[in-house]
């Protein structure tokens, strides 16, 4: 059974940076395309960025130029480096497969103050 544990969130001022981590256990991590998602209060969960097993990345328009997704297959971990954060980035951030089929983890809260 897959377990996803996200960490690294926190409270940051507008323009600041955070690095999120997600450790996946119970799988052969390197064969899966992974994604970061977020859910703001009162909104649906949305995709932010994806990365293939070989490291090819893709971003939504809101993340392009500010966020960087990466992975360390040896550590079964996917990262999201977030720079130039804006108040509208405030959300709970989750990782999952690029097509999310696993049970969601608890997520990590990111709060950006103006």
What does this structure look like?
Strand 4 (34-39) and strand 5 form a beta hairpin. The chain has a six-stranded mixed sheet, with no helix packed on it. It has a four-stranded antiparallel sheet with strand order 1-3-8-7, with no helix packed on it. The mean pLDDT is 97. The protein has 114 residues and is mostly beta strands. The chain contains no helices and ten strands.
Question: Secondary-structure map with pairings?
Answer:
Blueprint: E1 3-7, E2 10-13, E3 18-25, E4 34-39, E5 46-51, E6 57-59, E7 67-72, E8 77-82, E9 91-97, E10 108-113
Parallel strand pairs: 2-10
Antiparallel strand pairs: 1-3, 3-8, 4-5, 4-9, 5-6, 7-8, 9-10
**Helix and strand succession?**
EEEEEEEEEE
- Amino- and carboxy-terminal Cα gap: 40 Å
Report the C-alpha radius of gyration, rounded: 13 Å
Strand content: over 45%
Tally of contiguous helical segments: 0
Strand order of the largest sheet: 2-10-9-4-5-6
- Summing up helix and strand content along with how strands pair, one would put the structural category as mainly beta
Which sheet architecture does the biggest sheet show? 6 strands, mixed
Low-pLDDT runs of 5+ residues are none
Coarse morphology:
globular
Mean pLDDT across residues:
97
